[in-house]
Amino acid sequence: MAVSITKVLLLDNVDPSAKTILEENGIQATLSKEKFTADALIKELKVYDGVVVRSATKISAEIIENSPNLKIIGRAGTGVDNVDVNCATKNGVIVMNTPGGNTISAAEHTCALMCCLARNIPAADASVKGGKWDRKAFMGHELYGKTLGIVGLGRIGREAAIRMQSFGMKTIGFDPIISKEEAAKSNIDWMTLDEMWPLCDYITVHTPLIPQTKGLLNDASFAKCKKGVRVINCARGGIIDEEALLRALESGQCGGAGLDVYVT
Predict the structure, then answer these.
(1) Cα–Cα dist 28/123, whole Å
(2) What pLDDT is attached to residue 22?
(3) Distance, CA of 234 to CA of 262 (rounded, Å)
(4) pTM for this structure?
(5) Residue 163 belongs to what H/E stretch?
(6) Which residues pair with 51 in a beta bridge?
(7) What positions does the domain D-isomer specific 2-hydroxyacid dehydrogenase NAD-binding occupy (predicted)?
(8) SS3 of 229, please?
């Protein structure tokens, strides 16, 4: 069934090129930097039949059920955990995402955080800005020969693996829906989580936040890891239990964390 879309609201600092593309296809588009409350967004959406969000705006059941003109929700990114998909489906609202849109950016950012952890770059930068020049305190270590554990072997996880292999890292990983044979095509040794934890020098997570992944890295899993393991999360806040991470950092069980996302 064809859906006719005439007017779309673009939120969360969506790139202006989205507005251009929509308008070139005869759809009126409005870019807004406003951070709407649920009530304010319901009021705003009365004159739109489509909305595009990134990860900041939550499209809840309340918003969907009180926006009778809404026909489509676009997610500029991969995960749709900030959209109540079940409610949208019940109300005949289409939910679309762009799974390949940020793959390279997310993979490169993951690698950048890994390099920062290996070479203590943020701490060294802060030290120099504080008027000190203490090179020996921030020597760090090579990534060459280290083992990178990847949880989630989708597009981003595999792209991160390919890039870190160029540093000479061994890549191992887990994904419940990716076979050993498929992982091997990206030179990743597929393992169960319990097999993987003790081998990792670095761990990076690339999964959606769902009940099965919430708190995946917790006190129990940190205890199974090498002492000093470093972790990176460019996926979703909540995959790593933040309180458990703090305890692991304070005890030295975790040697560092590169986080681009948080629970709140």
Answers:
(1) 47
(2) 95
(3) 9
(4) 0.80
(5) helix 155-165
(6) 9, 73
(7) 112-262
(8) strand
